[in-house]
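Entry:
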Amino acid sequence: MDFANINNITITGRIASGATTLAQNLANFLEWEFLEGGRYSDEFFAKIKQNEMEVNLRPDKLDLDFDNYVKYLLMNEKRYVIQSHLSGFMAQGIDNTFKILTVCEDKFGNDKPEIRIDRLINRKNISAEEARMEVQKREEGNIKKWRKLYVPDDPEWVYWDKKYYDLVINTYALNKDEGLACVLEAIGYNAER
């Protein structure tokens, strides 16, 4: 399935915001390739037998190589749904890339970390404390690392700033089918094709 002005789609979100679920569902629906950034990080931590919350143990080269690979795909390939924390940020200025951000926010725009934590508890079958630590510690470590690598002059930068995205999907307000329907409408999918 092809679209006139969209070669690839990126889906980004904070930990347990629903980005991976949305990306998998979208890639399956469109029958496009799916690239999940978290898989590369998970493989690295499995090799060194360390917890993924220890972000400082992940070499900068791993992040840089993966992000350069994402940019390469976005500039040279078509029909990819790429899910990673930085894929939307890395796609800035790359033509024909549709950038989606998933958030888990209340009607006032406040992040709902307790919902994201609950999702981790259910997905990974871990304790509430483990999930809370993962959301807080891993997110803080990633932000610190990525600010240093990509935006050293902006101590307030976050990859979930809505200005980087074409569409924001709130998974607090929408279930996975509703979120997918919003994306399909936004990219111009016509069910009568």
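Strands lie at 8-13, 33-36, 80-83, 97-103, 167-170.
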